[in-house]
Amino acid sequence: MTRYLPSKPSRGVMVAMVLGTALATSPARAGASVARGAEPSAKAVTDISKYCQTCWRNARLPADRWQDCTQAVFVRLLERVEADKWGAVLVDSETSERREFLRAIDAVKKRTQRARKFAALSHELPDRRPVTNTTRDDRDAVAKAAEQLSPRQRRILELTADGWPVPEIATELATTVERVSDEKYKAIKKLQHHFGIA
Q1: What letter would DSSP give residue 90?
Q2: Residue 125: inside a domain, yes or no?
């Protein structure tokens, strides 16, 4: 599956984006931290971001979720670790800051994996076991019905049948989730009409 990753932002933009999001998400605690003059270094933010990306890759999380997961880790760090001590979270020692950082990564990773697992149980996704009781006539009928669909609609239904969730289909086809859902709905309606179901 082809994944499209956004172009890499500059370090200054990344630091501003991370801190801006974190501060906006947790104004009370963040405000107190800033008031005391605590501010993480740009190097600490960059190093933490890289470490997080490696964790998401190793955990096989979807690449389009990595930025959100990293933001969630920064928010949790901002709530629980003084910003000027963020440089200590990557030190190989048993500091409370490092333990909190590892807990944040683990919590975000597990939450993302659970969300993905629940999405896979959606009633819209088919059973992945192969269908063995189809006859040649059934397959021919489905192939004939599929001729009424546009190439994009056929591709969306093929990916759905393979168990792909809508957001990943949208990424694969370089379109929006809304567009995929709309095309999928239209394709199903065409097939239902063809078979006299609706």
Answers
A1: G
A2: no
